């Protein structure tokens, strides 16, 4: 177990990984430069460590040491201990979940590696809100989806807010970012996926009436504009969630939950008929 290091000054350079966590622009730059990400709270930190992400350091108030004792016993990295007021001064907010960890990012797998063996996949085009991305990963895990593909402009699943909302699901659901985005429909078909595009269009098929497929890739677009015309045309089928006519659409995270459930229910129905 690493030694506990008492820290008395917010200016201590050893705490630089944890500075200004509310400044999204600064954090993106810092985390990209150093290949790191931040996890908040005992449960999320435990899941990140369990997923094999190397720990750079931890920062916490003394009263949280006991709840993370099982993790700290396995960590070979500095464990910085400081008063809660100092942790708040460094991070820029009250860390009510008690602990922060700085972890090293791992190389993303290839698209082929992510799709290999997967049966149900979510594909996100330009979903740039970290909260939505985190919620979508949580929904993917909850309804048994095997993987997530991200467009180049999607928000970072390992940004602190996304991890927090996902409750650590970003560590259990395989994902990667796709470089050649325009080729993705062809790649999915090469892996024998049926490509479904979610849209509120009236002429789309009700997702609740969708028959089960062996392999499904479900496409979700950005909050404001939805899926691009390129993706809507490239899909094998356009599907919609029927909602009240007085409501334009659902939030993309809510949409993912309903759609993932519908596809899971179709799969469960298919399996039931074979019992």
- Helices and strands, in order, run as EHEHEHEHEHEHEHEHEEEHEH
Number of helices: 10
What gyration radius follows from the Cα positions, in whole Å? 21 Å
Say which CATH homologous superfamily of the largest domain is assigned: SPOUT methyltransferase, trefoil knot domain
CATH C-level label of the largest domain: Alpha Beta
Low-pLDDT windows of residues? 270-275
CATH topology of the largest domain: Alpha/beta knot
Q: Structural class, from helix and strand content?
A: alpha/beta
Return the average pLDDT rounded to an integer. 90
What characterizes the major β-sheet?
A: 7 strands, parallel
Question: What order do the strands of the largest sheet run in, or round the barrel if closed?
Answer: 8-7-6-11-9-12-10
| Strand element count | 12
The span between the termini is 51 Å
Verbal overview:
With 275 residues, this protein is of the alpha/beta class. It folds into 2 domains: 101 residues, 60s Ribosomal Protein L30, Chain: A (2-Layer Sandwich), CATH 3.30.1330; 163 residues, 3-Layer(aba) Sandwich (Alpha/beta knot). The chain contains 10 helices and 12 strands. The strands form 2 sheets. A 7-stranded parallel β-sheet has the order 8-7-6-11-9-12-10. Strands 1-4-3-5-2 form a 5-stranded mixed β-sheet. Helix 6 links the parallel strand 6 and strand 7. Helix 6 runs parallel beside helix 7 and helix 6 runs parallel beside helix 10. It is elongated.
């Amino acid at each position: 177990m690493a030694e506990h290091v008492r820290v008395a000054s917010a200016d201590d350079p050893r705490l630089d990984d944890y500075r200004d966590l509310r400044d999204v622009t600064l954090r993106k730059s810092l985390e990209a430069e150093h290949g790191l990400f931040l996890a908040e709270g005992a449960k999320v930190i435990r899941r990140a460590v369990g997923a094999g992400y190397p720990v750079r350091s931890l920062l916490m108030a003394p009263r949280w040491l006991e709840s993370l004792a099982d993790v700290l016993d396995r960590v070979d990295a500095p464990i910085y201990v400081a008063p809660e007021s100092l942790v708040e001064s460094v991070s820029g907010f009250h860390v009510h979940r008690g602990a922060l960890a700085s972890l090293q990012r791992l190389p993303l797998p290839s698209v082929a590696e992510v799709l290999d063996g997967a049966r149900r996949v979510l594909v996100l085009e330009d979903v740039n809100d970290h909260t939505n991305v985190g919620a979508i990963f949580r929904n993917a895990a909850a309804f048994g989806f095997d993987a997530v593909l991200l467009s180049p402009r999607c928000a970072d699943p390992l940004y602190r807010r996304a991890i927090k909302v996902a409750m650590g699901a970003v560590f259990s659901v395989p994902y990667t970012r796709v470089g050649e985005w325009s080729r993705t429909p062809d790649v999915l078909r090469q892996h024998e996926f049926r490509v479904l595009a979610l849209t509120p269009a009236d002429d789309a098929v009700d997702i609740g009436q969708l028959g089960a497929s062996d392999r499904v890739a479900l496409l979700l677009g950005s909050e404001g504009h939805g899926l691009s015309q390129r993706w809507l045309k490239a899909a094998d089928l356009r599907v919609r969630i029927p909602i009240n006519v007085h409501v334009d659409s659902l939030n993309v995270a809510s949409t993912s939950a309903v759609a993932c459930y519908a596809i899971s229910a179709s799969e469960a129905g298919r399996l039931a008929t074979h019992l």
